[in-house]
Amino acid sequence: MNSVDITTVKSILSQPQKIAIIPHRNPDGDAMGSCLALYGFLKKKGHTVHVVTPNDYPKFLKWMPENDTVINFERENPKAKEVINKASVIFTLDFNDLSRVGQMEQVLKEASADFIMIDHHQQPSDYAMVTYSDVTMSSTCEMVFNFIDFLGETDQIDADMATNLYTGIMTDTGSFKYRSTSSKTHRVVAELIDKGADNMAIHQEVFDTNSPSRLHLLGVALSNMVILPEYRTAYITLTQDELDQYDFKKGDTEGFVNYGLTLEGIIFALIFIENREEGIIKISLRSIGDFSVNEFARAHFNGGGHTNAAGGRSETSMEETISRFNDILKTYKDKLNP
Q1: Cα 74 to Cα 27: distance, rounded to the nearest angstrom
Q2: CA atoms of 236 and 49, how far apart (whole Å)
Q3: CA–CA separation, 5 and 129 (whole Å)
């Protein structure tokens, strides 16, 4: 954030505001961690604050402090719309284009509030009055820590806020292994631990609460993995019937895509997941090194994200999607084998 934006935010927050905080659709650990931490901070400053999610999110995130205050737009539509319509300030966290909120998009476009964006994804839109965008950051949670630091108020970060921020940084960095994890990230994390974040307990809550059905689904995913060594690529498919067989719950496939990258020589991994209700194949893409899955997803699968982590979608069948992917992949052989 530049000095003008910091001054603007300080001026806005110097008076009591009605504030809505919005994550992207299908919010992950970074989205929920940043929203809940900012919620705690702004409440301390005397504002009226609500977090409104476009839809539900995984059970392994629902232990987080302040989770019970979250309003779900799908389930509590009238209440959610009232909060957004009455808001004087709307923070959008962990996304940079209003299309990322699904059915909430039109409600946000019609809102009269001032928008403040905090996000680390590429190619931000210009809808916000204040935009804090930095693609080099490990996570939006690290940016929220910086945001509070810019305001000179990190002393206000308590154990609950530290816990939420730590959760988002941990999940969005792959437990601190991704390239975006900087020395500054580790210094921020150290400060969060000093402020009360219990790193071991957080890791257990997020990663060590699997159901038997989720592990069985992982077994199916791994058995479905296709390895293409000539393209240094591996992909997984999961059909709706396979998801139903193992009682799929939101978040159950989180992290499955990363197993492809654990194979020696593989630098590009994907998972294709059928969603019959929405009529789409949801695609998650990951890479190692300089191969940009953000560019790949934007060019071919109506998506985007980061250089090494992105999402996309296909509106054709699983068979047609995989056939098209294999055709596209042939044109990337040189980029995948530099």
Answers
A1: 13
A2: 41
A3: 9
Distances 61 to 29, 193, 205, 243 between C-alpha atoms, Å: 7, 19, 8, 20
Q: What is the pTM of this model?
A: 0.91
Q: Annotate 42-82 with DSSP letters as a single string.
A: HHHTT-EEEEEESS---GGGTTSTTGGGPEETTTSHHHHHH
| Dist CA 21 CA 39 (whole Å) | 7
* pLDDT tens digits in sequence order for the chain, 338 residues long: 999 999 999 999 999 999 999 999 999 999 999 999 999 999 999 999 999 999 999 999 999 999 999 999 999 999 999 999 999 999 999 999 999 999 999 999 999 999 999 999 988 999 999 999 999 999 999 999 999 999 999 999 999 999 999 999 999 999 998 889 999 999 999 999 999 999 999 999 999 999 999 999 999 999 999 999 999 999 999 999 999 999 999 999 999 999 999 999 999 999 999 999 999 999 999 999 999 999 999 999 999 888 999 999 999 999 999 999 999 999 999 999 98
Can you read off the two tokens belonging to residue 51? 């977090």
3-state DSSP assignment of residue 260: helix
Collapsing DSSP to helix, strand or coil, 275 comes out as strand
**Cα angle at 35 between 280 and 144, to 5 degrees?**
115
Of 78, 1, 70, 73, the residue nearest 32 (C-alpha): 70
What Cα–Cα distance (Å) separates residue 28 from each residue in 34, 48, 319? 10, 24, 28
Q: How far is CA 322 from CA 166, 204, 236, 237, 319, in A?
A: 37, 35, 10, 9, 5
- The beta strands (E) that lie in 63-136 are given as 71-72, 89-93, 114-119, 130-133
Q: Are 333 and 315 in contact (CB under 8 A)?
A: no
- The first and second tokens of residue 202, run together, are 């957080």
